[in-house]
Fold this sequence. Notes:
Elements: E1 5-7, E2 10-15, H1 17-23, E3 32-34, H2 52-63, H3 69-80, E4 92-95, E5 98-102, H4 112-116, H5 119-129, E6 135-141, H6 145-154, E7 160-167, H7 173-180, E8 187-192, H8 196-207, H9 210-218, E9 221-225, H10 231-250, E10 260-265, H11 270-280, E11 285-292, H12 297-304, E12 306-308, H13 329-336, H14 341-354, E13 356-358, H15 361-370, E14 371-375, H16 378-392, H17 398-413, E15 418-423, H18 431-439, H19 446-457, H20 463-466, E16 477-479, H21 484-493
Parallel strand pairs: 5-15, 6-7, 6-9, 7-8, 8-16, 10-11, 10-15, 11-14
Antiparallel strand pairs: 1-2, 1-3, 4-5, 12-13
Helix pairs in contact: 1-5, 2-3, 2-10, 3-5, 10-11, 16-17, 16-18
Bound molecules: pyridoxal-5'-phosphate (PLP).
Residues 110-112, 145, 228, 265-271, 320-321, 399, 424-425 line the site of pyridoxal-5'-phosphate (PLP).
Amino acid sequence: MNYLYESTRSEKLTSTPSNAILKGLSDDGGLFVLKDIKNLSVDIESLKGKTYYEIAETVISKLLSDFSMEQINACVHGAYENKFSSEDITPLVKVGDDYILELFKGPTSAFKDVGLSILPHFMTTAMKINNVEDEVVILTATSGDTGKAALEGFKDVEGTSIIVFYPKEGVSKVQERQMVTTEGNNTFVGSIYGNFDDAQSGVKKIFTNKEFLAEQKEKGIVYSSANSINIGRLIPQMVYYFKAYADLMDRNEVVYPEKVDFVVPTGNFGNILAGYFAKLLGLPVGTLVCASNENNVLTDFLNEGVYDRNRPFHKTISPSMDILISSNLERLLYYMSGCDNAYVKQCMDSLNSTGKYAVTDEIKEKIQKEFFGGCATNTETSFVIKKVYEEKGYLLDPHTAVAYKVMEDFKTKNNANKCVVLSTASPYKFTKDVYEAVFGKTDMEEFVCMKELNKKTGVDIPNNLKDLESKPVLHNASMPKEDMIQFVSDCKKGN
Ligand SMILES: *Cc1c(COP(=O)(O)O)cnc(C)c1O
């Protein structure tokens, strides 16, 4: 059975799964969603004893109905085999009474590797399915981790190129260094004077510039997105929710259908939305706990039903969550409104023109049944890093620490199930903040600090970060956001 995806904003704009992956964003600016997702289901008990690969094939085949099983098998193995430093791909670690799902074992030490390692394989397969002979150019805005993970994923993949924009002052030293040292003959990187939302809206503008796109198409170039708005990233992110539950069953920590709560450090709402999709497919998920940093627009939305981005933008020690427009929330609105495209469009129009929208009380209550929203300040985040290290011997990165803090709040206010905290980065991606949280202020330079943190804690430094210091800088373009389109056009002139 072939299921069609449709735009969140119009039921008339439909697409096959493979074409939705190639397009990234629907023509009307809406996001692709699968209306029929509730009719699909995964047999949870059958996942007992299965490997990550087997679970991935089971889950992904439900959602990419025009891919053959052989194609999905090739994508899954091509993406993860020998590329992650753990055979489990996403290992589950027990810390005290809770569980930490380590999503950072991939080539760039951030959870985005899980989606972005497989996206190029999905795309090249989708190109074959649709007989596309154009070059696919990936255009991406990043708050830090997406950029490098996408660059690594697409590097030297035939028939593709990748262009990444990041906010000049909005990413960590290590993140910037990871990006600007990227090798490969199809990789381009530029920094923007502005914040992540500037970079993201700049990219969205290019995607909706029909004249530019038509001109490029003439030259055999089509553009697509690697941001978490692409369903090709969301779908693989559902897999680790199932894997975590399977691990809990295998260890006799839960017996199906016991519910589990998942706590997710959230920015663009992609990771946590994948958890909601997993629930729609039958995973016994209790509450999805949405953790924000000082940019707590989602906390307010979940508590009050009003999304209002008109507020100061805070730079925090969890920069990958410094976001005021959480794009994937649009997909949640779609499902929570009963697949009401016109309603979603109205909310998004309002967000565009006034920076704000309010949902009906009915929708608000429906959302609150599934989600809990909380936030942590920088001070609270640092405190939690220190406390968990000293009391439990586990070193959290700042994003995961935000989630840990919100989990504690959630547990004091609710009768929680077993909790799984999604850990989205290695502490070594944010070495200095982690070091200072545990051991106090330091003047040490980032890479010296890395070695010192390793010496003091005994926690291994991931290989990809160890040799970063000595790699040459290969990308150094900076620009105002108005120049992004020119940069894109120039990148492709050379080839
Ligand atoms: C991207 C990212 C997040 C936020 O994930 P979303 O899917 O955008 O909500 C959290 N932590 C880290 C380390 C990230 O890179």
